Amino acid sequence: MTARLTDPFQRTIEYVRLSVTDRCDLRCTYCLPEGFHDFQEPAAWLTFDEIERVMRAFAALGVRRVRLTGGEPLTRRDLPELAARLAAIPGIEDLSLSTNAVQLKRHADALFHAGVRRLNVSLDSLKPERFAAITGGGHLDKVLNGLMAAKAAGFAPIKLNMVVMRETNEDEIEDMVCFCLEHGFALRLIETMPVGDTGRTATGHYLDLQEVRRRLAEKFELLPSVMPGGGPARYVQVAGTDLKIGFITPMSQHFCATCNRVRLAADGTLYLCLGQDDKLELRPLLRAGAAEEDLIHAIREAVARKPERHEFREQPAKIVRFMARTGG
Ligand code: SAM
After folding, report:
1. The pTM of the whole model exceeds 0.85
2. Which of 15, 91, 211, 218 is most buried, taking the most CB atoms under 10 A from its CB?
3. Which CATH number fits domain 15-326: 1.10.443.10, 3.20.20.70, 3.30.70.360, 2.60.120.200?
């Protein structure tokens, strides 16, 4: 292995969020505008061969965690084939998937056999009508069927990601706690971020999770805890149960000092920070026939430009690209 990938702030990059498409089969209010169709053409996406070349270069630089994401990754054809190719790369130890689970029932077994082990499923409401309103017409039963299929396939842990919004779904946090207790899922609560116009609109429903944590502590005894995964959640465990609750607080308590990741968009743009525009275009290099050493060199130079932190509070209008474009 070549020397590790470090940035100017002494952070080691060991985690890549890998977006395989910017397309999605839902239109969550805080993510994509209603009726949005202005997606990239598939010709712009990196092919599986190109993704594998990039990820081999990252693995040579010490990256050991990869999360497949999007857009909705299950809308990309043959995703299990890509997962198997990534799982086989020496050095990649942890392959996970973020999904809305709409199509998970069909793909759960194949993804598990391909080597995906950890799963994050977005779920903001357990009420069918509210779920449809938040997701632009999504069917809750499909997601629940997907979740049960994932559990049966053997995924562990399964974490539910709930974007908590004032006057939208804040009244469902306890129901979600009960649902996770019943099924052995972990719960992760997320603050809305001002990414894209939709994200900015949603911050009108912003709820500080420090407040939510205080409310939960009145109902449950919360003990400090940790969970496997390279992400930014801070966990507590509900005393007397196996339930872990994670708080992802980019706004009220940002976690940039411990950032260990970069994001590769479906078109080969490597974003160095979710909340900044600094990037490296890898597709031209790949299509010009770059060798692994060339990719390693380019990635190393890019990471040397990784910004210190996002400025969601100071400059909420800065990031115009939607979350689905960067890769969630
Ligand atoms: N489609 C997959 C899914 O649903 O998990 C992966 C991509 S999605 C963009 C990844 C995560 O980003 C989801 O949990 C979603 O809720 C979150 N997200 C999208 N826009 C957001 C925003 N403005 N603020 C906070 N979280 C957001």
Report:
1. yes
2. 15
3. 3.20.20.70
